[in-house]
Amino acid sequence: MVTARPLHILAYDFKVFKKAWRGVLFISVLSPLLYLGAMGLGLGGLLRSGNHTVDGVSYLRFIAPGLLATTTMQTAVAETSYPIMARLQWNRIYEATLNTPMGAGDVMLGEMLWLVLRLTGVGVVFVAVAAAFGGVPSWQAVLAIPVATLAGMAFGTPVFALSARLRSDNAYNAINRFIVIPLFLLGGAFFPIGQLPRVLQGIAWSTPLTHGVALCRDLFLGRAGMPSALAHLAVMLAYTAAGLAAARITFWRRVVV
User: Model pTM?
Assistant: First the structure.
C-alpha cells in the first residue's frame, strides 16, 4: 500500500539541505564549473589554436557531458555515505523515526526519492550553465539530465546498501580513493576511452559511469542511437537494481529488530 509517509523523509532531507546548502554547493556546482571553465575554455582554447578537436567536436563540448555524469556520481556518493551513517549510528535519526508509524520501507523510499530529486537538480543546473558556456549544441541535452540522474543512482544505491552495514566511516576513504577518483579521471569524461590500454578500457566499460558519460555525450551532441542508448541504460539500470536489492537487505537487517 502506497502512503505519504516517505514524503516526510523527503521533507526532512530538504530541511537539512536548506541548512547545509553552502557546504554542498562546491561539490555539486562550483567544482564541476571550475573544471568546465579551466578544461573546456582553457585547455580547449589551446586545442582550438592548434586546429584540433576531440572526436570531431570542441573540447568544451566533449567534456561538458562527461562532467555532468561525474558530478552526479560524486553527489550520489556524498549523499549516501556520511549522511546515512550519521542517521543510522551517530544521531540515530532513523531509530527515532522507526518508533513512529513509519517503517523501514518508508524511510528507504523517502531517501531514494530525495536522491533522485537531488541528482535531477544538479543535472538541471549543470546543463543550464553548460549551455551558457556554449557547451550544449543539441536540444537532446535535456534528456541527458535523467540519464545523469540514473548514472548517479547506479552509484548511490550500492553505497546506501554499504552504509547500512558499516560501523565506521573508514571505508568511505577507500571508496573515494579507489573508485570515485579513478573513475572521475579515467571514465571517459576528459578523453576518449579508446586512448586507454585494453585492460583499463574493459574495466571502465564495466562501470556505470562510463556508460553514463557516453550516453550523456551522445545526447549533448545529438547523435544518440537506439541500440547503443539501450545498452548504456541497461548497464546503469542493472547497477541501480542490484544496489536497491542489496539495500533492501542490509537496511532492513540494520534497523528492523
Answer: 0.92
pLDDT digits (tens, 9 = 90+) for 106-162: 999 999 999 999 999 999 988 988 888 888 999 999 999 999 999 999 999 999 999
SS3 letters across 10-39: HHHHHHHHHHHHHHHHHHHHHHHHHHHHHH
Contact 127, 68 (CB under 8 A): yes
C-alpha triplet 212, 214, 150: angle, nearest 5°? 15
Separation CA 101–CA 239 (nearest Å):
31
Cβ atoms of residues 148 and 52 within 8 Å: no
Q: Which residues contact 164 (CB under 8 A, 6 or more apart)?
A: 84, 88, 247, 250, 251, 253, 254, 255
Angle at 88 between CA 9 and CA 5, to 5 degrees: 20
The values of phi and psi at residue 137, to 5°, are -85, -15
Alpha carbon distance 46, 39 (integer Å): 10
Q: What cell was used for 48?
A: 582550438
The sign of the torsion formed by the CA atoms of 203, 205, 208, 213 equals positive
Measure the CA angle with vertex 124, ends 122 and 130; round to 5°.
100
Sorted by sequence, the CB contacts under 8 Å of residue 214 that are 6+ apart come out as 188, 193, 228, 232
